[in-house]
Amino acid sequence: MANRSSNPHLALWIAATGLSHGEIARRIAATAKAQGHRQVAPDATRIRRWIDGERPRPPVPALLAEVLSDAVGQPLTPGDLGLRATGPELDSIQLPLLTEAAAQTLAGWTQMDLFMNRRDTLKLAVGAPLILAAERMLGGTAHALNHSRKGFDADTVTALEEVTAFFTKADASKGGGLYRSAIVAQLAEAARRIQDGVPKSLRPRVFAATADLAALAGWVSHDCGRYPTAQRYWSYGVYAAGGAGQRDRGVEIVTRMSHQMIYLGRPDDALGLLSVAAAKAKTPAVKALVASQTGRVHAALGDERQAEQHLGDADELVADGLGEDVPEWVAYFDAAEHAGARAVSARDLAWLGRPCKRASTHFEDALKLRKPGFDRVRVMDRVGLAAALFDEGEAERGAAAAQQALDDAARVDSTLVVSRLNTLLDAARPYETAAVDEVRTRAKDLAAARPTTIAA
To answer: What is the pTM of this model?
Structure first.
């Protein structure tokens, strides 16, 4: 592996060319002269300074990218080389298409997350930069340069798969707040080992397991209110899924990013991400997931026709059984999960005055269909059911459903559940009965004990 430097991306790409610093400097000068930039004439020492972290001024980043692109036979941008692009920066979450450099970036994120307490350095990517980043990540192919050392053997990969499965089940059952630091630390260890090299025979398993772990780290970070941090882990998960040859795994992770945009009140960004996901989805289960979530977003925007079109597409795919051998990473999306999306869609459309089936009926369907082990989402269904009953004028039934939901919610550590509690409080506001007052007091106390946001 290349020596540590202030710009490891540039160091690794230069190593990939097999050219000396002097030859790269000569080629940059020749290219600059051909383009009319006669003042650009670097030497080998200048190349070394760039690797050490010095930032060359335009047009050098573009010239360097052109020279290295020709040398390695792959189009590169200044951003791929760790240099600020000469035009507008498209996003803040793109990863270099190099195994070691991307893993080193991931290691930096985890270090910042766990040890440095500098969460303010991460910013949430939104709008066009986010959509373009997702499109690029789903279409990219990682390149490995390091073959000298190996960070994994078969037993190590098995251990990584097993610990990821354990944390995934724990998160679905109890929420990820208790386990988040351990999950991030495990991801940091995976990143360290990837930098040491991945044997070709184990590459699909290593990157599949790492994609699962990164997706989980992103989800529990989102559930703890650390939204930009979640985005970074998800972006690496998409990258790792591509390295494993599991493009649909990356699509599923992009739907998680879209879920975050819905949660943060950015439905247009959610639709942009889902449009990218829909273009890449191949398997019935992932297509159904994308269609269900897309319908949900259109409902939030009040577009009843588009909502029903996409939710109907998901209905058909779910009814057909979602295909054989559904991968574990998308097995959570089933008839129950789709019923939950139907319920939230009906709720949103009702709030906007659109006629539709009662949301409480969909929530009841979801609860009947939920499989064991998904305690957090079952709690969210119960809270959603209680809120829907209040909205539908059934205060007595709503209060009874809310008491059961609050009993369950107290056992789950999740800000997503707290968000639903706030929805419940809004729905209960018109009622002034003893039963509803008790619900209101309990819900406020539980929401206060688990704040919905953490500085990110």
So the answer is: 0.81
CA–CA dist 198, 148 (Å, integer): 10
DSSP notation for 361-376: HHHHHHHHHPPTT-HH
Confidence of residue 87 (pLDDT cuts 50, 70, 90): very low
**Region label for 353, one of left (φ > 0), alpha (ψ between -120 and 50) or beta (otherwise):** left
Return the pLDDT at 145.
63
CATH for the 108-366 domain, from 1.25.40.10, 1.10.3720.10, 3.30.70.3270, 1.10.260.40: 1.25.40.10
| pLDDT band at residue 120 under the 50/70/90 scheme | very low
Residue 393 region by backbone torsions, left for phi larger than 0, else alpha for psi between -120 and 50, else beta: left
Task: With a cut of 80, say whether residue 9 has pLDDT above it.
Answer: no
- From residue 316, how far is each of 98, 112, 291, 360, 370 by CA, in Å? 40, 44, 10, 22, 19
Contact, 50 vs 65, CB < 8 A? no
Element holding 177 (H helix, E strand): none
Sign of the dihedral defined by the CA atoms of residues 124, 128, 129, 130, in that order:
positive
Helical segments of 244-334, H only:
247-263, 267-280, 284-300, 304-319
Quote the pLDDT of residue 247: 92
Helix (H) or strand (E) holding 395: helix 395-409
pLDDT surpassing 50 at residue 454: no
Read off φ and ψ for residue 82, nearest 5 degrees: 75, 20
What are the phi and psi torsion angles at 98 (to 5°)? Answer: -135, 130
pLDDT in tens, 144-175: 665 556 788 999 999 999 999 999 988 888 77
Q: pLDDT (tens digit, 9 = 90+) per residue, 169-216?
A: 888 887 777 789 999 999 999 999 998 888 889 999 999 999 999 999
Nearest CA to 140 among 107, 182, 96, 191? 96
Residues 47 and 14 sit within 8 Å (Cβ to Cβ):
yes
d(Cα 425, Cα 420) in Å, to the nearest integer?
9
**Closest by alpha carbon to 310, among 338, 282, 269, 281?**
338
Contact 172, 374 (CB under 8 A): yes
